[in-house]
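Re: beginner question about structure tokens

> Can someone show what the tokenized structure looks like for a real chain? I only ever see the sequence side.

Sure, here's an example I had lying around. Input first:
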Amino acid sequence: MTEIILIILGISLLLYVLLGGADFGGGILELISRGKASGIVSRAIAPVWEANHMWLILVVVILFVGFPSVYSTVLTALHIPVLLVLIGIILRGSAFTFRHYDIEEETPKAIYSSIFRYSSLFTTFFLGVTTGGIILGDITMDYTQGFYAVYLNPWLNWFSFSLGIFVVILFAFLATIYTLGETKEKPHVERFTRIATYLIIALVVAGALVFATAELEGHPLFFEFYHSIPSMICVVLATLALPLLWINLKRNNRQMLRLIAGFQTTMIVLGWFAIQFPVLVKVNDGVDITVQSAIAPKQTQLQLLIALIVGVLVVFPYMGYLYKTFKFGDKTVDEQKAN
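And the corresponding structure tokens:
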């Protein structure tokens, strides 16, 4: 029963990275392209951006009900970056909506576009910072150590910041690859291909920076990856996919690009999970919070599992229908509007 709940949790987290992450990356892509991608980004994410937050809600609900000590620890020790993420999500969503439906004047649209772009960057960065705080192991349960040690030190470090930068680049990369499949206009294709090329290089550099800052902070991340066979396999597979990604980028093979980018991202998430498991939250001066120590009582697990199964049977078909309707239909009319 616990294993099934964990699998649903993992799938929800992965889908949020792949789909919600690309939505956040759309705003970052607008920043990188200096607004030239606005029309295509708006058309690409408008039908699905709200629905993609469902995966984050599902992750939060599973943690709250199924792993309450994880939920309480993370939202206590890391409440500052989590709060900043929530503020960013609200600003981003509001600005995107107002930009689309407000009066057709340049000044309001420019303001909303700026808020949307910078809040996308801001939110993504602090999602990575929060993840870094969970991984690094500087969270303390001793609340007598003072405000800095309890609420700032777990995330205010070079490792968390470097992971924030990595996530920003990753989400922008996903958005660029997905957006390539939304247009056939040659200038747009050339622009996004060029941006994707730069982002691939930036991802490799940022990944190396994450490992370097982990060593700087005293966290043996490279050692953990090296001594975890599943993690090493994930790293090798993600690396081997780079030449394929490069070749298909030059050929503008859109479907393969999406598959390869999704595969590489999945390998990154699985590689991290492999070195982390069964630990869910690393604690500095106490016992790490593991799956077995954090899991709710059996009766609670059963009720949660029933709710999740019903939810999966209801939500997944509707999400599939949503994407089939808005993402795989005729794009000709929408593309003319975007241009």
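Each token stands for a local structural state, so reading them left to right follows the chain. The longest strand covers residues 279-281.
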